[in-house]
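Data card: per-record layout.
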Amino acid sequence: MAEDFRGVYEIVESYNDHAKVDMYELRADTFLDDMDYDGLMKGWSKLKELSKKPILFTYRTRFEGGLGKSSITEYNEVVRTVIKEVRPEYLDLELSSCCSDANAKMYIRLANHYGTKTILSKHDLVYTGSAKEIEMLFMRMHYLGCHMPKIAAMANDEKDVISMVIGAEKAKSQIGDLIAISMGKMGVKTRLPGNLNKSAIGFAKPVGRKVDKNSSELTGQIDIEEM
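The structure for this 227-residue chain is written out next.
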């Protein structure tokens, strides 16, 4: 989405009745670092009034490919504020930025208390692990109590895509819904409809004035109409 709430309002109104859009992802890392608390709460309140669909609140740190400038300590402060004050329907929670499994579990429980479902995520812009490593990471994230685990890893070759698909398939048979994405041009097939797509939720190419088109191409994101 866009870099401030004015742009977000326009996007939401444009896509509210789009048949392929079931949820919005608010990429707060595109504007939150330059916004105060009052601005966040006022903007969020109006956004909730306009949106006809649930919203996933995401603050993606620079450590996992986002625009967020916050340190790990600041990220954790953002998470606590969003859970307690913003209270979105869904919250993306970066496993690595939580610093520990214990912290991640604490935030998940806190989010549950305030009625927010968590997508516990792990993004790797360089490396894809083995199918077994992917399966075990999904299992680990699931047992921390999140609503849905998400793994996105860069596919450097066809073998990486196969590892993601097999690992996700094995985990899915044990824990249910998950999100598994192979990033890059090699991994586009994991985003498209078909038997290589194991994800319960798909992510289309972002829209807005501050979208990094080079980043979208690098990670293999596709237009909503292709999904």
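Known properties of this structure: The domain at 1-119 is CATH 3.20.20.70 (TIM Barrel). The chain has a mean pLDDT of 91.

See the next section for split statistics.
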